[in-house]
Design goal:
124 residues; Putative tail protein
């Protein structure tokens, strides 16, 4: 598998509106490990897969008014690159918005989100 530069990554919402000036995004896709250890396991823990879920963050420089309001559900599309790589799509509930300002820096915003429903992973 070839390496892919992240410079073409993107974050889009509600059918393809790109959030401009985004610099990074990350998704945590996890499954609960449910312990099933009993006396027959002789002290060695055993597990089965439980429910799965996903959440994440994205951040970038301020470019106009921030589009995401906490408590709002959007359809999200997170891409590794414009023409190659994976797309991660699903509904997101925006749970946090964090503006950051420094006298010697660029105004930035970061967002936290919780996935709701399935996370679809497709290649571009």
């Amino acid at each position: 598998m070839a390496n892919i530069a992240g410079k073409g990554g993107f974050v889009k919402y509600d059918g393809g509106t790109e959030i401009t000036a985004i610099r990074s995004w990350s998704i945590d896709y996890t499954v609960d490990a449910l312990e099933t250890t009993d006396f027959a396991d002789a002290g060695v823990k055993s597990y089965i897969a439980g429910g799965s879920g996903w959440s994440g963050t994205f951040e970038g420089m301020k470019d106009g008014a921030p589009p995401a309001i906490i408590g709002t559900i959007y359809s999200g599309d997170f891409g590794e690159a414009d023409t190659a790589g994976m797309h991660w799509t699903g509904d997101i509930l925006v749970t946090g918005l964090h503006p950051s300002v420094a006298f010697d820096g660029v105004v930035t915003y970061s967002w936290d989100f919780q996935g709701t429903g399935a996370l679809v992973i497709a290649t571009a």
